[in-house]
Automatic annotation (TrEMBL):
Residues 1-39 are annotated as: Disordered. It is found in: Secreted. Growth factor that supports the survival of sympathetic neurons in culture. May regulate the development and maintenance of the CNS. Involved in the development of the neural crest. Might control the size of non-neuronal cell population such as haemopoietic cells. Acts by binding to its coreceptor, GFRA2, leading to autophosphorylation and activation of the RET receptor. Heparan sulfate-binding is required for signaling. Its main location: secreted. Gene3D superfamilies: Cystine-knot cytokines. It comes from the Eukaryota. The keyword Signal applies. This is Neurturin.
Amino acid sequence: MFNGSRKYSPLPSSPSSSRASSSSSSLPAAPRRSPRALQRHSSLLSQYSSLLESYTEGEIRQLISALVERYSQAMNSGSHELPLFPRAGSRRKRARARHKPCALKELEVSVSELGLGYESDETVLFRYCSGTCEAAIRSYDLSLKSMRSRRKIKKEKVRARPCCRPLAYDDDVSFLDAYNRYYTVNELSAKECGCV
């Protein structure tokens, strides 16, 4: 990968020290490296080979020492993976969060917060369905999506993927409003969820 006939010297730490060292020592100046542009049509291996060949020996030593230091920090902190790409884990977490399966969730709210027009300070346990239905996509959904993209179905409002919805509802919910009137609401809270 490296040309053995070329000799490289480590990079100086600052521009002022390079001027001083070049005038005071008889070491040959480091060759200028070629730009690190990757060719579009060459293979991935040859792209990385040419990229690494453009580094000087001092730059490669700095790179290796930085990787070794990072590795030793990871081992001392109890982690067994080299943290080269710290964002990859958070990306995976976000991806998992977006694709949580359809499930029943619950929330304690006041009757007024339900948005049904009742004024009451009583609280109820509101159960709802949340999540995605990627695993429940069937041939129907794929065909419907294709027909919509080809504009075969234009005016109708159709949904080309299954939706997380209640399959069954809890018992009716009864409460007193702010004026001591008694109400019963049916099909308010989900009992079972599924992809429909």
